[in-house]
Design goal:
Elements: E1 15-19, E2 24-25, E3 32-39, E4 41-46, E5 49-54, E6 58-61, E7 68-71, E8 77-84, H1 95-106, H2 108-111, E9 113-115, H3 120-130, H4 136-155, H5 167-177, H6 188-194, H7 199-210, H8 214-232, H9 237-243, H10 249-260, H11 264-300
Antiparallel strand pairs: 1-8, 2-7, 3-6, 3-8, 4-5, 4-7, 6-9
Helix pairs in contact: 3-4, 5-7
């Protein structure tokens, strides 16, 4: 199982940040993140490289990348950013697409992309963020689309394997063509029939292809769904348990605690506290932006 993950990272939510002249920021973000510089100039420092950045430019960072943003000594640096966590797109991404993104993230020195302000995606993002979108679902879809446009090259590397009689290839084809959530809708026996192999053989090749057993994979998908509901809805814990596919609250509490190190109720409270803190930081960042803009306006007179 994964390491305990007590906190729930924001997903497809715009955040703002302001750095005073000479200050730096170490992004510690989950998933893939898209950053756009709003005002000012600075540098992206990664390993031994130093890339100058300016207003309008976009940075795409994979999960866990080691690097930092440094504001120029002459002026503050403002940016907006959001993250997309592939594991939380189980109903949209196929196993093959998620695997491709994981491979790209593993090549962190290659996966970091910096696009100029004149790049089509950079201009789209600037225009989109300058508008007010009342439809929250449409807003999130636009954010996802922007990142997918940059992801495109990596996702295009997921090419169909030639069909043959090998059960491993048939399993890979099935996982490539269906969203991960399909595994919650079919039984192991049904999957064995669909891949035309025995249950014993399927059990072995499933572990080889996915990295865990069929049972553990289903549990992972359910817990990801449960965590999403706990963080984004007001549903009671028992309702979240049922919605996530658990027949009883006690079983849900046991599985959730085993995976995340605390009960669902406690996890929700801790996440709400962290969300409130993040909102206060965003408010403070906006105030700093307004103050910096006002100061530049006074200095220009």
């Amino acid at each position: 199982m994964h390491k305990p993950d007590y906190l729930y990272e924001s997903h497809l939510v715009i955040k703002e940040l302001s750095l005073a002249p000479g200050n730096e920021w170490l992004p510690q973000l989950s998933g893939w993140s898209l950053l756009q510089i709003s005002h000012g100039t600075g540098y992206w420092l990664h390993q031994q490289s130093r890339t100058e950045i300016e207003a309008g430019m976009i940075l795409m960072l994979p999960d866990g990348v080691q690097g930092r943003l440094l504001a120029s000594q002459l002026n503050p640096l403002s940016l907006c950013y959001y993250s997309v966590i592939p594991e939380r797109l189980g109903g949209l991404l196929t196993h093959g697409e998620q695997h491709s993104l994981q491979q790209s993230a593993a090549r962190k020195e290659l996966a970091v992309q910096i696009l100029p302000a004149t790049h089509l995606t950079a201009m789209k993002m600037k225009d989109f963020l300058s508008q007010q979108c009342a439809n929250a679902l449409l807003f999130r879809l636009h954010l996802l689309q922007l990142l997918v446009e940059i992801w495109g090259q990596d996702l295009n590397q997921v090419k169909p394997q030639p069909e043959n009689n090998d059960a491993t290839q048939r399993l890979r084809a099935f996982l490539r063509e269906h969203p991960q959530n399909i595994l919650l809708e079919i039984s192991f026996e049904e999957l064995a029939q669909l891949t035309n192999c025995t249950a014993r053989h399927l059990s072995r090749i499933f572990c080889e292809v996915v990295g865990m057993s069929f049972r553990d994979k289903r549990a992972e998908i359910r817990l990801v769904r449960a965590r999403e509901l706990l963080a984004t809805s007001q549903s009671k814990v028992v309702e979240v348990a049922l919605e996530s596919g658990y027949p009883s609250l006690s079983l849900f509490n046991l599985m959730f605690t085993r995976r995340f190190g605390m009960s669902p109720g406690r996890w929700r409270k801790k996440n709400e506290a962290r969300s409130d803190q993040a909102k206060r930081l965003v408010t403070r960042s906006r105030r700093l932006n307004l103050k910096a803009t006002f100061s530049r306006s006074i200095a220009a007179r």
